[in-house]
Amino acid sequence: MTAHRNTAALTPAVLALAALSWAGPLAAAPGGDSLCRNILARIRVLPPLTPSQGWQDPVQRLASLPDPYLRIDAASGGSAQADALAVRQFIAAAERRGTPDDVLKAMKAMDPSAGTLQLMRAGASSLYAISEDQGTMHCQDFVILDAPATGPVHQLPQPPQAQAMIDDGDEPTAFCYTDTAFVGVVAGQPAFIEENYPPAFPDYDISVSTWAAGRWTRPCAIKVIYSRRYSLADIHCQGAVCGPLRAAAPAIGASFDDQARLHPGAEDTAAFAWGPPVPARDRAKAVRLRAIIADGLPSLPAPDIGQADDQSDTFGERRSAAVVVLGGHAYLAVISHSHIGWRIYARLILGLYDLKDGNLVPVAGAFVDQFEGPIAEAALRPWPPAKPTP
Fold first, then answer.
1. What number of H helices and E strands is found in the chain?
2. 321: burial class by Cβ within 10 Å (0-12, 13-18, 19+)?
């Protein structure tokens, strides 16, 4: 899905203010990087997650703590209809208070028929946002507003994280899928927080900009990488290979992910090595299996793992393969992250195949779940992040 930020909703006055704000360096955040240092210190002491908790992003975990240092407005009215009603009531109140027509037009351009709307507020401050969430990628657009207790509502410039996407010109120009934005409060200041991570790995990029002295501050940024733990979620097989596969599947999944992280953006990745060497009796079979990998994996049916109604029981575009030895016999292991359409998930699907009469025959399948382990790396990062070199 292609997402476009609604820049037409910016009023001329706001565009002029944005131009002034971006003509020179952004204002430094009060305390410099101390905001992110304090957030980082709090992330480091979050209790570890259990396997049943899977993944939980650090921003929302921090916001749920009694500690008020970081708060986000993620509250909903309980339904899309209730949230849309809250937005309509906010706009109606703004009209009664003499809000300029161009600001009203910008608010009304957030169309509930194109997605879901939500009214957010940065704590008890006068900074509000109307958020529009569109499509299956859940792309977020924002209109940022100053709504004091009395008098007209004014539109504010886009936060730096949003403006950077607009200026870059690449797609998407909104916060989509696992790139999420929040309005909230950090250290008592109204704040805009972006949190982004790859769909298949718990590696989080977090940036924070506060609204101070009539402008957005330059964001401070954090990188948090969690170690990964793997567990067998489901298995379907018959015969002597079941026990060895049950024991080995999490380690095979970890090997695949370790390789995938070393080769970001690749399609079918090269064969990876795992496990004991091939026994002498299966060396000829292993040669044939490796030739199949080298020639390009054919379209293979995902092994039936007992959940035939699960749409994610298919290999994703990015598969990898290896000759593995289980129970003393060589097999072809094919693995990828599960997916539905364009969506990629942390869960892995693993297929095991044998050669019979020269053809690959599925003999077993497994789901391997991934969950967050302890923090592996956590540090401040520059903002904006460096672009990858061509």
1. 8, 14
2. buried
Which token pair is 333?
């292991």
Please write down the HEC assignment for all residues of 69-131: CEEECCCCCCCHHHHHHHHHHHHHHHHHCCCCHHHHHHHHCCCCCCEEEEEEECCCCCEEEEE
Cβ neighbours, 10 Å, residue 108 = 15
C-alpha count within 13 angstroms, C-beta hemisphere, residue 50? 1
CA distance 159 to 132: 16
DSSP 8-state secondary structure symbol assigned to residue 71: E
Q: What is the SS3 assignment for 236?
A: strand
Q: What is the pTM of this model?
A: 0.81
CA–CA gap between residue 191 and residue 183 (Å, rounded): 6
Q: Which of 199, 205, 216, 147 is nearest to 181 (CA)?
A: 205
* Rounded Cα gap, residues 116 and 130, in angstroms: 10
* Cα-based torsion angle of the residue sequence 48, 54, 55, 60 in order, rounded to the nearest 10 degrees: -70
Q: Up-side HSE of residue 284: CA atoms within 13 Å toward CB?
A: 2
* Residue showing tokens 């793992």: 305
Burial of 47 (0-12, 13-18, 19+ CB in 10 A): exposed
- The total of other beta-carbon atoms located within 10 Å of residue 285's CB is 17
**Which class for 53: exposed (0-12), middle (13-18), buried (19 or more C-beta within 10 A)?**
exposed
Q: What is the DSSP letter of 382?
A: -
Per-residue pLDDT of the chain (390 residues; tens, 9 = 90+): 334 344 334 443 333 333 333 333 455 555 458 999 999 999 999 998 887 787 889 999 999 999 999 999 866 666 888 888 899 999 999 999 999 999 999 999 987 776 689 999 999 999 999 998 877 778 888 999 999 999 999 999 999 999 988 887 665 567 888 888 999 999 999 999 999 988 777 889 999 999 999 999 999 999 999 998 999 998 988 889 999 999 999 999 998 888 777 665 555 555 567 889 999 999 999 999 999 888 887 877 777 755 555 555 677 777 888 999 999 999 999 998 887 777 778 889 999 999 998 889 889 999 999 888 899 999 999 998 765 444
- Classify strands 127-134 and 203-212 as parallel, antiparallel or unpaired: unpaired
Q: Are 94 and 152 in contact (CB under 8 A)?
A: yes
Evaluate the omega torsion of the peptide bond into residue 112 and state whether it is cis, within 30 degrees of 0: no
Helix (H, G, I), strand (E, B) or coil at 187: coil
